[in-house]
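Figure 2 data, in text form.
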Amino acid sequence: MNNLPNNSGIVNFGGTNDISNNNLGSGTQVNNHGVSPSSPLSAVDTRPVEEKPQSWDVGVVTFLSKEMRAVTEQLGLRSREKIDGLFFSTGKVTTDAGTVSVVATQTHSPGQRSVMSALDHLRRHFSPRLWILVGIGGGLHPEYARIGNVIVSTRIVYYDSRKIRGEGDAQRRGEERQAPARIVHAVNVYFTDRGEPAMIRGQADGHRKRTFEVHPGLIGSGEAVIADGDSDVHRFLEGYNDKVLAVDMESGGLSQYWQENSVGEEPNPDWVVVRGISDNADQEKNDDGHDLAAHNAAHVVKELLPYLC
């Protein structure tokens, strides 16, 4: 994967990066510590922090256990590392463009604040060059975001900033952030090659013969689970931009963390969000679609890696 240039206090959405390759260090060892070989994660590595490779290609963040399992299965992350009491799943993914080193972690809990802590842990211990937020989300437009479809987003609208003007009277103020230009171009090429929408097979039992769609689109992100199809959040996002196809509770934290760290001399990872639609953010919301949505999203991440890395 390509190294990123250092930031100099200016967020650059275009231009040419100074790029060079930096491979993982060799000679790393994985020690087994009582984990069953039949487990999807068959090794636990408890090496001291200072022995870790200095930089990884991709850091993946999930917030549900089903999402984490889907990521480890789809990407083949077979090792588990424990650092300072935190657990990370690691592995190397072979793609058409080469081998990509991937580390994945699960947040402490759902929400914007917890995802920022998870990103910080990845940054300190693995220094990934790209963050991918992967998991489930609620769909806003049934014609695009039916359950099992996947949304790939390089633009996030945080919708929970608002002014309270009286009882039941709130004026929402959307905050929009976009991923770096390199990632936007990479996602564009993915859809150029595979079509828009791109088509995938279902990745969960009972759905493997079904076809699902992958769409580019905006994601609305806030602090609450939405289970009302006529909520003010629905109406605000539809009026804000009709390309807001899904909602979640974490993407706003990712985009905020990235923006606030786009200063200084430390490299700032690129980012992208991949959400599988598990419900329609309405009164019929339940957990039935979680497994399908999580596995379909993780599968799309694997398809995207050659473009992103």
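Caption note: The chain is about 25% helix and 30% strand.
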